[in-house]
Amino acid sequence: MTDAARAAVIDVSVLNGKRVLVIEDSQDYLLLLETYFDGVPVEYRFVTDGNAAIKMLSEERWDVVLLDNQLPGVSGIEILQWLRSNEIKMGLSKTPVVAISADVLEDSAFKEYKEELADFLMKPFKKKDLLDCLIAVVKGQRLKKLFGYTQT
After folding, report:
1. pTM, whole model, 2 decimals?
2. Residue 17's CATH number
3. What span, in angstroms and rounded, lies between the C-alpha atoms of 129 and 103?
């Protein structure tokens, strides 16, 4: 069974109407994610630099944030720090943040912030990995332990 066929049988109904903010500067990855989101009942937006991400996060609430670290302007770590500080200041619940990185978590800048993350996806990831992760996060679960796991 192909990756596309496996993803097609995943029940994505729990994602219906959820809002996903993708903070990623790689145009190649944005094109790939756009194909991954095709047919998935989520509202998603892409932001390609850190300053624009902070502006969007300050103006709107999101159900899930997918966050790369290496961004122009402000890094993903700085965005995560700003987000958590702002949520505390405003009395808001934590927005689930999924770090996305080409580095394994142990080597990633996100390693020191694992308690602030809902989950972690290592690039390259498949559509099934993304959907499984989003479903778990929306349900308030971590798909996998943040250390010592291998994506399927």
Report:
1. 0.86
2. 3.40.50.2300
3. 16
